[in-house]
Amino acid sequence: MVGLHLTNRRRPLAWLTLWLLALVVAGCSVPGIPLPELPIDLSDVPGIPDGLQEFPDLLGQLGLPDLSQLENLPVLEDLPALQAGPGAIIYSGPLERRLEVGQAIPGTDIRLTAISADGAQFEIAGLRSVRTVGDSLDYDGPWPGLAGVTYNLRLRIYQVTDRTVRAAGVHRLHIENITPTPAEVDLGANTLKFPFTTSASSGQLFTGMTIGFLGSEARGAQLSGLPEGEYPYRKVGDSIRWQGYLRPDIPVDYQVRVLYYTENSARVGGIVTVALPVR
């Protein structure tokens, strides 16, 4: 097996660290959100797949602050049980939201309407609700305007100021009837980002993409479905980029790297960005 954890001679983690730090220097941050200082123990952050917990700036790529310092955050097990059936895909991971008065959490019926001495006043499902630090903000339902898309949210408020409310936890997106199609896409401003890992056996496609795994060669894992003329081999730590449509109404962008491969299977992981309409 070829993997991130094998030998010091390969030093893939050090290589990945340099790459991720370069992204930060290049400005891959989200304006207005304090990004974490390195290193961070990602095992303390809910919703991070095991294969990605060694990536030192994963939270920065997701546009998240250091959630490892927050206590009693919801975890993925707090979401309703769900399995992706044939033709469906599930994305899940950590989330942090900063709301100003008048703003809603995208995809939900939760809107911050005022902040007073009593706490943060929300409108939830059309009803008034006053919430304070430690209170929950939950949602389970369809994504507005998209058939066959379900959104689940579990947040806890961790800060209330005279102007803003901040909450953190986990979220999940379930999309049915996917037919991945490669294309150059414009994601726009309304996106969700998730950590994502997926495996493929020899001769199979990676979930949600039209890129597949053919087997292990001397030059690395051999991939299928790449643009014509592109070098088809990737070693551990090498990048794979795929853009396209999960469905005609849902553009996505995968930026992943090879986590390990053998003769019979390969695993990739990184960030997927999904564009969704917001009312």
Question: How would you characterize the overall build of this protein?
Answer:
With 279 residues, this protein is mainly beta. It folds into two domains: 1-69 and 178-279, no CATH class; 82-175, no CATH class. Helices cover 7% and strands 44% of the residues. The strands form four sheets. Strands 1, 9, 10, 15, 16 and 17 form a six-stranded antiparallel β-sheet that branches. It has a four-stranded antiparallel β-sheet with strand order 2-8-7-6, with no helix packed on it. A four-stranded antiparallel β-sheet has the order 11-12-13-14, with no helix packed on it. Strand 13 and strand 14 form a beta hairpin. It is elongated, with a radius of gyration of 20 Å. The protein starts with a strand and ends with a strand. The relative contact order is 0.16.
Q: What is the element layout, followed by pairings?
A:
Blueprint: E1 2-3, H1 12-25, H2 58-62, E2 89-100, E3 110-116, E4 119-124, E5 127-131, E6 136-142, E7 149-160, E8 164-175, E9 181-182, E10 191-201, E11 204-205, E12 212-217, E13 220-224, E14 233-234, E15 239-247, E16 250-261, E17 265-275
Antiparallel strand pairs: 1-16, 2-8, 3-4, 4-5, 6-7, 7-8, 9-15, 10-17, 11-12, 12-13, 13-14, 15-16, 16-17
List keywords for this structure.
7% helix; disordered N terminus; 279 residues; elongated; 2 domains; mainly beta; six-stranded antiparallel β-sheet
Tally of discrete structural domains: 2
Kindly state the percentage of residues in helix: under 10%
**Measured on Cα atoms, how large is the radius of gyration?**
20 Å
How would a crystallographer describe the biggest sheet? 6 strands, antiparallel
**Helix-and-strand structural type:** mainly beta
Mean pLDDT: 88
Distance between the termini: 47 Å
